[in-house]
Amino acid sequence: MVDYAVVAKNVSYRYPDGTLGVEDIDLTIARGERVAIVGENGSGKSTLIFLLSGLLKPSRGEVKILGLSNIEEIRRKVGVVFQNPDDFLFNPTVRDELLYVPRQLKMSREEMEEVVRKFSEIFGLGEILNKPPFRLSGGEKKKVEIASVLVYKPEIIFLDEPTANVDAKTRKVIKEVVRSYEGSVVVATHELDVARLCERVVVMKRGRIIADSSFDSIDRRILEEAGVI
Question: What is the pLDDT averaged over residues 97-105?
């Protein structure tokens, strides 16, 4: 029996102004599975990420996350990386960003110092730990955002266009996160080399899923129809 991380049934969402986000989405994601959501701008990728992660409530249908109903429990086990890091970063320094959740979880001083050491090394943040996030480059902000999510080891991470507008070095680090993270990974992207890192690719067009299979099984014409290539 498959153990699902996320189950979405008959999910639709319209924004307050009436704009369609997604419509009639049925989707399951197994624990430990890597899933790419691809489609052109406006296809509903970001909306679907926010629905599957619990940041948005469906206008119709139901989303179950890790079998939990308590939103606080869900927030501790789900991490979301936004397309624009400025929507996420708000602490005075990079160090404070890394330690924000560990402090909420009441980690010991030793555990928090290990968090800073480990993720500074992985993401190359050592020289910017005392800088305010608004003073960082776009690539640096993205690395800090992702590191700040990974520090509390969420069971599912959702990444919205994580490699957009970053340098080659940052892009390599992010792709390694997508490839090797030891939990469920859901990544919205328009970049096919990122999508190839996932076992499954969900193709979206105008708020609907038009294909869902392994990357190599998707007909090129479907990708062309979706505006991905």
Answer: 92
